[in-house]
Write a structure and sequence with these properties.
With 266 residues, the protein is of the alpha+beta class. It is 18% helix and 29% strand. The chain is globular.
Length: 266
Amino acid sequence: MGRRENSDPLFVVVESTRITRSAVAGLMAGRLAALRVPGLLSAGRCQAITAALAAAPMDRYDESRVFPAVAKFGPAINDHRHAGELRDDYWEAARAAEKHWSVLGLPDTPRELCLQAFRPAWPRITAGRRAGREMHVGIVREIDDGLQVHYDDAVREYRGRLLDTEVVAQLAFNIYLRVPPEGGETVLWRRRWQPADEDTRVPGGYGYHESVVDGTQSLTLRPTLGDGLLFDPRNYHTVRPASGGRRISIGCFVGLTDDGLLALWS
C-alpha cells in the first residue's frame, strides 16, 4: 500500500533473495516490518510437499477458541497452553507429528526446512529447548477462511520462560506451499498490545475485533507460491479469507535469545 502522511518510514517490507543477518537484525530492532524472500522453495518442491500431505493426518486448532476453523499438521504451542504453562500433551503431539511425517516419503522434515532457511544468515541456530527437551519446529497450516486479528508474544503468553534461555525478540516465519488465486493476504499493523485492548477481545476467541487497529498504519502482503515471509508477530496481524483455492503454509516462531542464539519452535 502507499505510504500515508505521518506514516512510520521504518514500517516497510523489503525483498531479498535469501534471509540475511541484516534483515533478521532489522526486524528484531524494529527497522523493518517484514521480509519477503521470493522463491525460497521451488514450485516443484512445494507441489511435492502438498501432494504428500494429502496422506497426512491433518487435525484442527481448538475450535472452541480458534474460529474460523484452521486445519494443521503438527502441534501449535498455543493449543497446549494452560494458565501460562505448556502442557505435557504438547510433547505427545510433537512425537506423533514427527512419526507421521517420517512416512510421507519427503527428503526434508518441517524442522529442516525451517532451519535451513536461516543457516546462511545466522549460524548459531537450533530448535528451542524447554527443560532440556527440543521443541517441535515446523507446523503446516491451511488457513482458508481467515484468522482473527491477534498478536503472538511468548513473553506475555507464558509465565517465566517458554524456553530455557530468555527470548528477547520474536519473529514469525512462513513458507507458502499452496496459494489461492485471490485472497489469503497477511495484514500487519504497526501496533502492539495495550491493556485497554482487552475491551475489544473476541468473546471466547484468541483474538480481537478489528476495531483494535482502527486508524493504524498497515501493510497487506499477498501470498506467492514458494515465497518465505518473516515478520514480527508481536504486532497485530491477520490473514484474509482465501478465494477460489487453498492457502497452505509451513512455518514456525523464531526467537533471539539473550545469548545470541536463534531458537525456533512451533
